[in-house]
Specification:
two-stranded antiparallel sheet, 8 strands, about 170 residues
């Protein structure tokens, strides 16, 4: 019993000492282990998004028979009670940046300084980041950013809006 209390006291002292000296042993956000419920929600979100593959693009639309890019993303996330802004520019202001996106994260694209497009990460592999998004030319599709001559140079950043939801 005394040995157990001693170990706890040493642990508390060591943790307090490390923090008081400015040392931070927290896990970087990109390596954070998401809890199983959030991991499952990410898979369900992507599976739901994939049910819309082939749906046509409709400018400034937000309905199950046609979407623009941000309308599609907003519709999918809203299905899981995650409220996002209506435009990709405003969505880009939500959540936390992630250097290595994972399933369910948002990816943003720009031409110059302004965000103009958004998609949902379906998965990543050695080929790159795979997303599902609504394109004006082909409707809702899934593709790899790094294999797209059009989207690769426009990639701006990724954000997590699932874990940052409180």
């Amino acid at each position: 019993m005394n040995r157990f209390i001693f170990i706890i006291l040493i642990s508390l002292f060591t943790l307090g000492s490390a923090k008081s000296h400015g040392l931070d042993y927290s896990i970087p956000y990109d390596r954070e282990i998401t809890n199983p419920d959030k991991r499952n929600q990410r898979s369900e979100l992507v599976a739901f998004a994939k049910t819309f593959l082939g749906t046509s693009y409709k400018s400034r639309q937000y309905c199950s028979n046609g979407f623009d890019c941000s309308g599609f993303v907003q519709y999918v996330y809203q299905h899981f009670d995650i409220n996002l802004s209506r435009t990709s520019t405003d969505m880009a202001k939500q959540g936390r940046r992630r250097t290595k996106p994972i399933e369910g994260d948002l990816v943003f694209f720009s031409s110059g300084r302004r965000i103009q497009h958004v998609g949902i990460v379906t998965h990543t592999d050695k080929r790159g980041i795979h997303i599902i998004h609504s394109t004006s030319s082909r409707g809702i599709i899934e593709e790899c950013i790094q294999e797209s001559q059009y989207w690769r140079p426009k990639y701006a950043f990724a954000k997590d809006v699932i874990l940052s939801k409180r």
